[in-house]
């Protein structure tokens, strides 16, 4: 680990009148000097941001109301600490890269009122957070987090209708002036300045505190943070839905001496920069797992999306022992690390009661003999009610992970639930996949066994809507994926163009081409990556399945070759000495170039899957090519509507 720190401490006292504070301005620039942050402290605390000298965020007010005190109202600065930091982080789970540069300049304001605010300027954006220093527990009544834009920016707005939400939204293009009073959204949210600079608002190090959402504010082009208050009364409607019907008049009761979540404004001058931005990870609390060597990312054969519609077998398919042994055989044959047993294996409401069609001892013993891990789906509330006995039983079975579903909240209580489950799972060496979840907010660094989560409008939606389009597929990598891994669940082997797509719960299909789906395994980041279709379809499509099975789920290096939000994306990723390329398009056909100049010296063998000549009519049509390339090569590739292109490159021994 390389680390250099330069510290400058300036201590001063400021005289304050009873009615006003003389304005104090502080400037902070990113290490490359392209981003300039200005903090103004007078009666209130505001900050603004410029990129290359142009305003992208006007003076935006921040404060924190603790008990009956507004931290940020008539503040008295007693100390200013400036710092410059450079460190190479090596993540336990390499979602984008094996090394991450943590390089920033910071200014930390210490106030007489027993709180601090630290601002950081990175080359990739700006972040700030509150810190309090009170002896006893405190009650957070409200937080003011304004984002005041200089003009009527266009947004990608994941509009919500309730705080009871799993944060699976399509992005609506609103100008800020079009976001009316009743509208609000979850995070991340993207705003685009006139000069093409993109701003993504999100958060990190979310712990013992509610998540942040956004709504219009009083300013002309202003959005403000809103937060779900602490639950006062909840009603359990069934095994999975626990709704808040009454809330307290505060956000959280928490420790008086603590740091609060980072408020992030990620900044990208090009769309490609959104893909490589890792501020959410960088700003999270470091791993709390002392020995994480047992954490094994991988691919998963998943049952729920395909409705267990296996065929060509001598048993009745469904949620039963023989079907899951068939999944295990498939996984073993293709080198798939895990299978998931989704809803149906236990009597809903009681994890200790296994349905009679399932012999868990037989399934887990068989999986162990085949070198395949088993992950179990659970409803969050049932798991919470039976946590210790369930985890003890999972230990006896040799279960490798849990998929925890249907939380659908991010108030303080529920945020703490996520951390509690991740910690308990780690103690039992269990991986975690959170579904029905809010967006990633840093937990994937703090507890790296929490490999992935939903909080994304994923492929399951094809079972009930025709809105799950390739355009959405090439939008989410730029916004939702910036926050962290996303369990989109790709891998459909039944593919259709928009004009012949139809909704089917029992025999679902994807919109877009076969190669569009295959490219997702390179483009979409999820250290626990699903194969959503059924084993019979994968066996039938052996050529595609063997290609997918070779693609890793973690990466040593990521290079974006082409990127335009909502239109097209091409990414090259390296694992070891091998390279993998994925390209995806929206519903428009297009020609793009793949420039191989990113490759090291030497010759590479390349295996390609590309849209077939008739993929615009029959979306499952594809063509394979094999050959050799070097860094001097430049390919032109044709993408059908909703098309894709995927390649694996392996170095040729000299």
The CATH C-level class name of the domain at 3-282? Mainly Beta
Question: Would you count the extended β strands for me?
Answer: 41
What's the CATH architecture name of the domain at 3-282?
Distorted Sandwich
Main sheet: strands, sense, barrel: 11 strands, antiparallel
Percent range of helical residues? 10-25%
Q: How much beta, percentage-wise?
A: 35-45%
Supply the key terms.
TIM Barrel, 9-stranded antiparallel sheet, 41 strands, 13 helices, globular, Beta-galactosidase, Chain A, domain 5, 654 residues, alpha+beta, 11-stranded antiparallel sheet
Structure description:
The chain has 654 residues and is an alpha+beta fold. It is 16% helix and 38% strand. Among the domains are: 3-282, Distorted Sandwich (Beta-galactosidase, Chain A, domain 5); 465-523 and 551-654, TIM Barrel (Alpha-Beta Barrel), CATH 3.20.20.70. The protein contains 13 helices and 41 strands. The strands form eight sheets. Strands 1, 7, 8, 9, 10, 12, 14, 16, 17, 23 and 24 form an eleven-stranded antiparallel sheet that branches. Strands 2, 3, 4, 5, 6, 11, 18, 19 and 22 form a nine-stranded antiparallel sheet that branches. The protein has a seven-stranded parallel sheet with strand order 30-29-28-27-26-25-33. Helix 3 (321-334) packs parallel to helix 4 (360-370). The longest helix is centred in the middle third of the chain and has 16 residues, at 412-427. Residues 1-20 have low confidence and may be disordered.
């Amino acid at each position: 680990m390389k680390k250099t720190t330069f510290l400058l401490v300036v201590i001063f006292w400021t005289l304050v009148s009873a009615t006003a504070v003389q304005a104090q301005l502080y400037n902070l620039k990113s290490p490359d000097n392209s981003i300039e942050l200005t903090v103004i402290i007078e009666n209130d605390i505001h900050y603004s941001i410029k990129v290359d000298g142009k305003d992208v965020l006007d003076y935006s007010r921040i404060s924190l109301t603790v008990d009956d005190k507004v931290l940020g109202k008539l503040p008295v600065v007693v100390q200013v600490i400036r710092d410059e930091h450079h460190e190479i982080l090596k993540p336990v789970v390499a979602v984008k890269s094996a090394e991450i540069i943590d390089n920033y300049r910071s200014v930390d304001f210490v106030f007489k009122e027993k709180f601090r605010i630290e601002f950081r300027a990175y080359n990739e954006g700006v972040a700030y957070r509150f810190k309090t220093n009170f002896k006893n527990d405190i009650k957070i009544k409200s937080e003011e987090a304004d984002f005041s834009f200089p003009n009527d920016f266009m947004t990608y707005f994941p509009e919500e209708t309730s705080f009871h939400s799993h944060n699976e939204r399509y992005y609506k293009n609103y100008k800020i002036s079009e976001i009316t009073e009743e509208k609000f959204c979850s995070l991340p949210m993207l705003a685009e300045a006139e000069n093409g600079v993109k701003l993504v608002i999100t958060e990190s190090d979310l712990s013992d505190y509610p998540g942040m959402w956004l709504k219009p504010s009083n300013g002309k082009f202003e959005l403000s943070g809103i937060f779900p208050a602490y639950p006062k009364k909840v009603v359990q409607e069934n095994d999975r839905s626990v709704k808040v019907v009454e809330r307290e008049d505060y956000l959280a009761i928490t420790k008086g001496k603590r740091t609060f979540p980072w408020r992030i404004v990620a900044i990208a001058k090009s769309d490609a920069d959104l893909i490589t931005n890792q501020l959410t990870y960088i700003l999270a609390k470091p791993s709390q797992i002392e020995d994480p060597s047992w954490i094994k990312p991988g691919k998963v054969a998943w049952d729920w999306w395909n409705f267990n519609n296996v065929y060509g077998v001598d048993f009745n398919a469904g949620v039963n022992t023989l079907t899951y042994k068939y999944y295990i055989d498939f996984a073993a044959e293709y080198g798939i690390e895990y299978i998931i047993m989704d809803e149906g294996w236990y009597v809903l409401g009681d994890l200790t009661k296994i349905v009679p069609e399932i012999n868990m001892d037989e399934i887990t013993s068989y999986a162990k003999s085949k070198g395949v891990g088993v992950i179990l789906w659970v409803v969050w509330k049932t798991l919470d009610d039976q946590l210790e006995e369930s985890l003890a039983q999972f230990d006896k079975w040799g279960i490798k992970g849990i998929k925890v579903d249907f939380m659908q909240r991010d108030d303080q209580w529920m945020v703490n639930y996520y951390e509690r489950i991740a910690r308990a799972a780690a103690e039992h060496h269990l991986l975690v996949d959170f579904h029905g979840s809010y967006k990633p907010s840093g937990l994937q660094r703090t507890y790296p066994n929490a490999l992935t989560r939903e909080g994304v409008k994923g492929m399951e939606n094809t079972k009930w809507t025709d809105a799950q389009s390739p355009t959405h597929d090439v939008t989410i990598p730029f916004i939702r994926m910036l926050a962290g891994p996303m369990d989109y669940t790709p891998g459909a082997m039944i593919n259709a163009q928009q004009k012949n797509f139809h909704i089917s719960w029992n025999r679902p299909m994807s919109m877009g081409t076969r190669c569009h789906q295959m490219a997702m395994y390179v483009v979409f980041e999820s250290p626990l990556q699903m194969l959503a279709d059924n084993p019979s379809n994968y066996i039938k499509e052996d050529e595609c399945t063997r290609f997918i099975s070779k693609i890793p789920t973690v990466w040593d290096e990521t290079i974006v070759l082409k990127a335009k939000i909502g239109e097209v994306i091409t990414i090259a990723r390296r694992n070891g000495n091998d390279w993998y390329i994925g390209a995806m398009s929206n519903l428009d056909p297009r020609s793009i170039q793949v420039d191989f100049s990113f490759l090291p010296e030497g010759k590479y063998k390349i295996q390609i899957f590309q849209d077939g000549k008739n993929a615009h009519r029959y979306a499952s049509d594809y063509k394979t090519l094999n050959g050799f390339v070097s860094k001097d090569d430049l390919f032109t590739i044709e993408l059908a509507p909703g098309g894709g292109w995927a390649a694996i490159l392996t170095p040729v021994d000299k």
